[in-house]
Design goal:
The protein is mostly loops and 69 residues long. The chain has a domain of 33 residues. It has no helix or strand. The N and C termini lie far apart (61 Å).
Length: 69
Amino acid sequence: MNVWQPNSPLGELPMIKNARSLRESSYDKTGGNRDFKVVPSRETFVVADIKGSGSIKHIWLTIRCYAPK
């Protein structure tokens, strides 16, 4: 029985591919535990500047609100 289905998006999942998996992550460059970036209102911050083609599979951002409860 042939389980490979050419029209299925999962059909080639078990096949070996010529690819690599990479990770981009922030960290406290001083070695401490202050892994955060304050982005002032109306400003932007580049989370990752990745060159070349690829696919982002997961993004994790944590937001803290300083507004009174």
